[in-house]
Write a structure and sequence with these properties.
By secondary structure, the protein is of the alpha/beta class. It is 34% helix and 23% strand. The radius of gyration is 23 Å and the shape is globular. The N and C termini lie far apart (48 Å). The relative contact order is 0.09.
């Protein structure tokens, strides 16, 4: 990112300089003392398990240019500028918003219950055919990850692609206010984070906050195959582009979806123009994610053949419906925190491969916990186990405390290796 000074941090966060010099340059921001670089500001975040204030000494010893705290400690080195703020998490967001305002560029934001990270990767693939694109490392879609991504923006970047998640009501609106998206993409509304968000209608309300956050010159891309998402068009103040398999979608897949090896092929259509697409992603559900990315490209004026090329250059993210080969055994790795809809989509790829070639060798499914489902947690994991058995898997490996129940259910349903 372009360099800050300590004075910039004080101004952006409305903090107070307790010690040190305002003109000290700052080359970056970190919330993890272990990975902090020389010249970076360390924000002492009080997280779910750890409090960054316990690592101020370590941050100083690693060459921190500045320490941002919301509580004063006696053991802070006197030679490091110290900025006191009311809340370090809010201060991190305020600095990110300050930095975001330095740039005028397309910012594509993705939200939804499923497919955010994959769609983000696909959009980055599309935009990367022309522009230098910044995208988050990993998911980085919460109150810490999104600001850290914004703070990586530099003069070399021509576009930004982000994902915005939510565990509690109001979080998407707050994060969107920092990022100021010019294009919003909404994937699905499903049972994810319902432990905190409530009903599916509550999830819909939360996700629609991204639609309402887009400025006057922006665009919104909505999934025509999901009624709750399609209905968000009523919340939009800007033109809406729809995508999906639906005949009414403006960006759609036509013809057959063909699974080939670790990927698939389909035909992309929009505005009467067609383009063949070859994806390095498994599963029909990833066609929908690709259509979402294509809709973002259409929103930005990309020609369809260039969109198709960009989709083909994107690569899957580890732990998200990725097939691996090992000595004649085919392994489906879908271990990243999922939800019932995404797990069903992943298992559809197992059933498809088993149905296409009954002699395809052993098919092993590796699934992780589905978190933050609240009252439906046990029921959802039992259904996971039954679905693994029904998909035709030869072996099931569950990773995590809740996934153990899924394994037990699959075994009770007749799966011998679970």
């Amino acid at each position: 990112m372009p360099p800050f000074t300590v004075q910039d941090i004080v101004r952006a966060t409305q903090g107070a300089l307790v010690a040190g010099d305002l003109v000290v340059p700052v080359t970056g921001v970190s919330i993890d003392s272990r990975g902090l670089g020389v010249g970076e500001a360390f924000f002492a975040i009080r997280g779910y398990r750890l409090d960054g204030h316990a690592f101020l000494g370590e941050a100083a010893s690693r060459g921190a240019a500045c320490l941002v705290v919301h509580a004063l400690h006696d053991d802070v080195p006197a030679n490091v500028p110290l900025v006191l703020v009311e809340d370090t998490t809010k201060a991190l967001g305020a600095l990110a918003a300050y930095h975001r305002a330095r740039f005028s560029m397309p910012v594509v934001a993705v939200t939804g219950s499923n497919g955010k990270t994959t769609t983000k990767e696909l959009i980055a693939g599309v935009l990367g055919t022309r522009w230098q694109v910044l995208k988050p490392t990993a998911s980085f879609n919460n109150q810490w990850g999104l600001p850290l991504t914004l703070l990586r923006l530099g003069a070399e970047h021509e576009a930004l692609v982000i994902e915005i998640g939510s565990q509690h009501p109001g979080e998407i609106a707050a994060l969107a206010a920092l990022a100021k998206p010019t294009v919003a993409v909404v994937t699905t509304v499903a049972h994810a984070h319902t432990e905190f968000l409530g009903s599916l209608d509550d999830v819909r309300t939360e996700k629609s906050a991204l639609v309402r956050a887009v400025g006057a010159d922006g665009r919104v891309a909505l999934n025509a195959d999901d009624p709750r998402v399609a209905g968000m068009a009523r919340d939009s103040r800007v033109p809406v582009i729809t995508y999906g398999f639906s005949l009414t979608a403006q960006v759609r897949a036509t013809g057959d979806v063909v699974e080939e090896g670790r990927g698939l092929t389909f035909t992309l259509e929009s505005g009467g123009v067609r383009a063949p697409v070859t994806l390095a992603f498994a599963g029909r559900h990833n066609v929908t994610n690709a259509l979402a990315a294509a809709a973002a490209g259409v929103a930005l004026g990309w020609p369809l053949d260039e969109i198709a090329r960009g989709l083909g250059e994107a690569r899957p993210v580890a732990g998200r419906c990725v097939w691996r080969d090992a000595g004649g055994v085919r392994i489906l790795d879908d271990t990243y925190n999922a939800n019932p809809v995404s797990v069903r989509a992943a298992l559809d790829t197992v059933a498809t491969r088993r149905g296409a070639d009954a002699s395809a060798g052993r098919l092993v499914v590796v699934l992780g916990d589905m978190l933050e489902l609240g009252a439906i947690t046990d029921e959802a994991h039992q259904e996971m186990g039954r679905a693994v058995r029904a998909a035709g898997a030869d072996e099931f490996v569950g990773v995590g405390r809740h996934a153990r129940l899924a394994v037990e259910t699959a075994r009770a349903a007749g799966l011998g290796h679970a």
